[in-house]
Design brief:
Number of strands: 4
Oligomer: single chain
Largest sheet: 2 strands, antiparallel
Number of domains: 1
Shape: globular
Strand order of the largest sheet: 1-2
Order of helices and strands: EEHEHHE
Number of helices: 3
Helix content: 40-55%
């Protein structure tokens, strides 16, 4: 069944025969760890970040970067990518614009999670670095 909104957008109603409750539950359960990790980041931003203050040397901030990495790559990979970012965000680290990588390194596997992230700031374009 189709319905047309006043703006011209066509919406298709999902019929009960098309829905698969088992697939819906499986989809929810596979997204649950990712949602839990993102929820912890939001709790950090709400309670701890105001106490600590904004100290991140990068854009996006470390919490935004980790959230983006978890959304893009899942909890396991996103956690390690975010951890590598937090590790290099210190007084002697680099700074500047550093988005989540578009693709993972070829040598990164689930059993070698330390290969997911960049552990130094050498990968950042010198034109966008603020510490040089």
């Amino acid at each position: 069944m189709r319905a047309r909104a006043p703006s011209g957008i066509v919406f298709e109603a999902r019929q009960k025969s098309d829905s698969n409750p088992v697939a819906d539950v499986v989809t929810f359960l596979t997204r649950l760890p990712r949602l839990a990790g993102i929820g912890l980041i939001h709790l950090y931003r709400l309670f701890l970040s105001p106490l600590i203050g904004r100290e991140c040397r990068y854009l996006p901030t470390c919490s935004e970067y980790t959230e983006d990495a978890i959304r893009k790559y899942g909890l396991w990979r996103g956690f390690w990518i975010g951890l590598s970012r937090i590790q290099r965000c210190g007084p002697f680290g680099a700074s500047g614009f550093d988005p989540v990588p578009e693709a993972l390194p070829e040598r990164a596997h689930w059993y070698t999670p330390w290969r997911y992230g960049h552990w130094t700031g050498k990968h950042i374009d010198p034109k966008t670095r603020l510490d040089l």
